[in-house]
Amino acid sequence: MRSLTLTGTVALGVLVVAASTVVFADPPRTGRGAPGAGLSAKEQLGKLLFFDERLSARGNQDCSDCHGLEVGWTGPIEAIDMHGAVYEGSVAGRFGARKPPSSAYASFSPILHRDKKNGEFVGGAFWDGRATGEKLGNPAADQAQGPFLNPLEQALPDAAAVVKRVCSPHSGYSLLLRQVWGQGICDDVDAAFAAIARSIERYEASREMSAFSSRFDAYLAGEAALDDQELRGLALFRGKAGCDTCHAIVSDGNVPPLFTDFTYANLGAPKNPENPFYTQPPAVNPLGAAFVDLGLGSFLATRPEYASLAAENNGKHKVPTLRNVDKRPYGSFVKAYGHNGYFKSLEEMVHFYNTRAVLPTCAPGDPGEKRTCWPAPEVADNLETAKVGNLGLTTAEERDIVAFLGTLSDR
Ligand code: HEC
Ligand code: HEC
Questions:
Q1: Among protein residues, the one whose CA lies closest to atom 31 of ligand 1
Q2: pTM of the predicted protein model
Q3: Which residue's C-alpha comes closest to atom 19 of ligand 2?
């Protein structure tokens, strides 16, 4: 147990106040994290943490910089999505290797485990599942501890640095933290860091982020209709195109369909040549342009009990939710898709599913790229060939599926 030195006296002062004061002292400077109506105290705390850019090395980055509401809680900057699709960290010039997935609906992923029947990996958070949920009991909670300390993201030196900022009376919500998690919570760095992550996970699962308020949800509830094209798209999604075999449309009663079964697959997505990770210094990326994202396999290789299964999982990435894939501030706004953001529209994505295995491999600089040819997969091993690559869809059917995906945006 590490203890927190700095705030000792101040914290005591606050403690006394806490007993008699209302929940919110002052909202964080940015104002973006103002308390949301209808959130529980824990969810509100998570929201304040999610939107607090003071919790980064240069005081310039919070979770929403890479997970923005207006685009369905993924990367919000069009100029980035159109190219490398990777977001710069708090420290200028520092980039990871992947496109931000949505932070919404991640809370519903089970703890990473092997399916009893087929031995396949299921659950976890991140594209490669490395936030397993084993530590805090929920993958999204494990995940939430990552960005604060990732040198390519918010880049704080250690958990104590995060806790120090949150527990400081200047945070504006240290009282709330103590009210929700106990007066002594700031005395133990590990406990406080866990409480911070769990609060963020609760906000991510809240009605504000995981809203289940799309037109498709209203349709399921019998409160709205889908038009003919959307209905054709839904039928193809569940039938001829087989999308729902991974992006599952099942409901367990409590939770509406999540459009993922939290399994992993290698679709054969090409590299994104504009990925800024390729030109990171050797200390960050020793392989330079030769870097290949092995996904789940790269994580399994780090775990002794799973290492022997790494090779057969190279190139596999977690099946993402499709909720909000079409959510954008205006119609022509470009979003990036896939773990490296190679795809720039849902039309491209669906055309890829339909034709990857049918069209030839592009020659370098081929003008037909994404229409009449596809570049080689980033990882050629473990390609998903049964369900993906040759769907026999007409152009009109591709459009129907895209139209259906448009019904999954929360309102
Ligand atoms: C600099 C950009 C950046 C910042 C800041 C950032 N993220 Fe992310 N986030 C990403 C990227 C990139 C990934 C995928 C990384 C990977 O798979 O290796 C990710 C993954 C996630 C996921 C996993 C979703 C899933 O389905 O697996 C969640 C949840 C998430 N972030 C929440 C947060 C929270 C909470 C914060 C703030 C504490 C945060 N992010 C800060 C870029 C960012
Ligand atoms: C074999 C399982 C599987 C099937 C079948 C499948 N997908 Fe996916 N889907 C994935 C995986 C895995 C990814 C992430 C792949 C990557 O990044 O390399 C993904 C990514 C996506 C994305 C990008 C989402 C994002 O946030 O970046 C969209 C959109 C999508 N799929 C739509 C569809 C549609 C439409 C179909 C049917 C035509 C379909 N998928 C069929 C597994 C599947």
A1: 103
A2: 0.91
A3: 319
Tokens 């501030």 — which residue? Answer: 329
Choosing from 267, 352, 391, 395 the residue with most ligand 2 atoms within 8 A of its CB, the one to mutate for a pocket test is 267
CA distance 185 to 188: 6
DSSP 14-36: HHHHHHHS-S-S---TTSTTPPP
Ligand closest to 105 (CA) is: 1
Please indicate whether residue 402, judged by its CB atom, sits closer than 6 Å to ligand 2. Answer: no
What tens digit of pLDDT does each residue of 330-348 get?
999 999 999 999 999 999 9
Q: What pLDDT digit, counting tens, does each position of 187-242 carry?
A: 999 999 999 999 999 999 999 999 999 999 999 999 999 999 999 999 999 999 99
Cα 276 to the chain's mean position, in Å? 19
Which protein residue's CA is at the shortest distance from atom 11 of ligand 1?
100
- Give the CATH fold of the 8-77+87-109+135-205 domain: Cytochrome Bc1 Complex; Chain D, domain 2 (1.10.760)
pLDDT digits (tens, 9 = 90+) for 381-397: 999 999 999 999 999 99
Cβ of 265 less than 6 Å from ligand 2? yes
For residue 2, the tally of other CB atoms under 10 A from its CB is: 15
